[in-house]
UniProtKB/TrEMBL annotation:
Top enzyme class: hydrolase
Cofactor(s) listed: Zn(2+)
InterPro entries: Metalloprotease_M4, Peptidase_M4, Peptidase_M4/M1_CTD_sf, Peptidase_M4_C_domain, Peptidase_M4_domain
Basic and acidic residues composition bias: residue spans: 83-110
One Pfam family this sequence matches: Peptidase_M4_C
Lineage of the organism: Bacteria, Bacillati, Actinomycetota, Actinomycetes, Kitasatosporales
Residues annotated as domain Peptidase M4 C-terminal: 203-371
Compositionally biased residues, Low complexity: 69-81
PANTHER family tied to this protein: NEUTRAL METALLOPROTEINASE (PTHR43579:SF1), PTHR43579
Family membership noted in the UniProt record: Belongs to the peptidase M4 family.
Protein name (Swiss-Prot/TrEMBL): Neutral metalloproteinase
Amino acid sequence: MTLCHFAGMDAHSKRTGQTRRVHAVFCPIVPPHVLDHLSRSGDPVLYEPARRTLEHDALQRTRRRITTVRMTAGPAAPGEAPEAEKKPRRTISDAEHREQLPGTKVRSEGEDPVDDASVNRAYAGLGATFELFLKAFSRFSIDGAGMPLDATVHYGEKYGNAFWDGERMVFGDGDGEVFRDFTLPVDVIGHELTHGVTQHTVNLAYFGQSGALNESVSDVFGSLIKQYGLGQSADQADWLIGDGLFTDRVEGVALRSMKAPGTAYDDDVLGKDPQPATMEDYVHTGSDNGGVHINSGIPNHAFYRLATGLGGNAWERAGRIWYDALTSGDLAPDADFAAFAGATVSAAASRFGEGGPEREAVVKSWSAVGVSPAEQAPA
């Protein structure tokens, strides 16, 4: 059983000035149940890369679990830099198919594109994530204080995953049979970097419902990053996570669907998408840190219903409510769905008014997935 906390100052630390010991993090985009299905294939072209990826990911989880850091809270830096100076600082490195980080630096901030498309996509994806958080939520990089954005491409041999390790984004090239290059979907890049935002805010524990919320928050903002870049309204968006990541041999459209959890794929090799859309089908399991990639479908669907119910650009109202809840400082690291739902109701009331349509829409969206928002304690 892996209980994974994030390295960094969370909202509690910033409020109290206390020093906290927290575990470092390993958050991959591809759920272990998908790789497990692949590892049981009778085709070595499929099972060998999947088994190597599973072994790598298990080792990384163990390393992160036993690696603790002591963080002392200091003053929050958001807003200190002049607006004109709030620009990204990106560095892309090439692992050259080894598993040693960071690899060789191949592109830095402001440099021209290179011949390697993976490098350029990673660079652009980091920039798109930075822009969404700055322009829509006034957040200066993922820590709110201008943190440099680092990424490594071409990690490992046919490595079928991408992950955030607490400091950087890491992308595999995929096996070419099931998975394409992991720099292709911008929402995957945004998803992983949003784990860093969670790391520096509520610090949600990576297990059970808090872990599912952790994954869901990354899906929400990963989708918003894609929508913002494409200029899509909530009604125009596909609400898919990892669209284009599968090769043509896979019967599926993406890793997850926020619009219709449980329908993203149904494949002889991968199995069927196990995500539930409501609490009625909540999956109780000891694997995948208590089903963090599975039960995230429930808060994902709540957000989808809110965004489409409100209409317009999802980052303007629905995304703002989710961001305010995430950064409120009122959530505990072990917050469950009800606690997070309560925080979003309070956030909607605070920003848009107690009697506004936004608050009512939030309550309805959670009710539709079977979650009753917990009442927030007065500040």
